[in-house]
Give the backbone structure.
Amino acid sequence: MNRKFIIKIICLVLCLFIALNAVAQNELAVVKAEKKVVAAQALTPLILKQQWIDKWDGKLPVYGSLPTLFKGIEYLYSRINSFQERYEK
């Protein structure tokens, strides 16, 4: 085989490789774009709420040293007593 023929074959193989690589990159870009579109359409408020529930660890927020669900029992009793005193007069 002569040298020019081998160089032509190598060039053809390289061109083929470059073309196949470009096609593969293009297909990859198309798939990524389709994936983004599907993800954007799939993120409805209901699904986001479900994901938030699935991620929740079951703990309530803690403010201060102990978790408190109410402002304070003593405060509530004092408010009730003050209202009762006002209306009893």
Summary: The mean pLDDT is 81. The chain has three helices and no strands. The first helix runs from residue 3 to 42. The radius of gyration is 35 Å.
